[in-house]
Write a structure and sequence with these properties.
Distance between the termini: 75 Å
CATH class: Mainly Beta
Number of helices: 2
Radius of gyration: 22 Å
Strand content: 25-35%
Helix content: 10-25%
Order of helices and strands: HEEEEEEEHEE
CATH topology: Umud Fragment, subunit A
Strand order of the largest sheet: 1-2-9-3-4-7-8
CATH superfamily: Umud Fragment, subunit A
Number of domains: 1
Largest sheet: 7 strands, antiparallel
Structural class: alpha+beta
């Protein structure tokens, strides 16, 4: 009798360990769920938005201009940033700094990307710390999970109500 119970416990523990390993690998190397904080990507992403990230694309070097990425902060390695890719390795860019001055960086170095927040007046990004190594990128945002996008107006209305 006790052998039967021991076998049941070990069998259940085996399933828990197996599925725990599968979930860990999936969330660490395939896709991840991230809760956004800060105002740098508003209005695209807001504080409290939950997003799903693809962690394979950055590893394959398939980032594109316009992608939103989650990366380790180059200034605070324990924190993550969420920014839009503006330029890739080899691109030349003109920089509009936060203080209103215009500077130029001839070419984004090999193995780096240039990232900026959509809310340029409230974003610490590559304009402050320069291009970031692609190795810091943890994932590319695939879509927003929460809050869901809700159509506020019926499809028969062409314009929102006035008033």
């Amino acid at each position: 009798m006790w052998r039967s119970r021991l076998w049941d416990v070990l069998s259940a523990a085996g399933y828990v360990i197996k599925w725990g390993v599968i979930c860990h690998v999936a969330l660490e190397y395939v896709a991840g769920i991230v809760i956004c904080e800060g105002e740098s990507m508003e209005p695209t992403l807001s504080t409290g938005d939950i997003i799903l990230t693809d962690q394979i694309t950055p590893r394959l070097g398939q980032l594109n201009r316009g992608d939103i990425v989650v990366a380790r902060s180059p200034r605070k390695p324990r924190e993550h940033i969420c920014k839009r890719v503006i330029a890739l390795s080899g691109d030349s860019i003109a920089i509009n700094r936060l203080d209103g001055t215009l500077a130029s960086m001839p070419i984004v170095p090999r193995g780096h990307i240039w990232v900026e927040g959509d809310n340029s007046s409230n974003s610490a990004d590559s304009r402050d710390y320069g291009p970031i190594p692609v190795g810091l990128v943890k994932g590319r945002v695939m879509f927003k999970i929460w809050p869901p996008k809700i159509n506020m107006y019926p499809s028969s209305c062409s314009d929102p109500p006035k008033g």
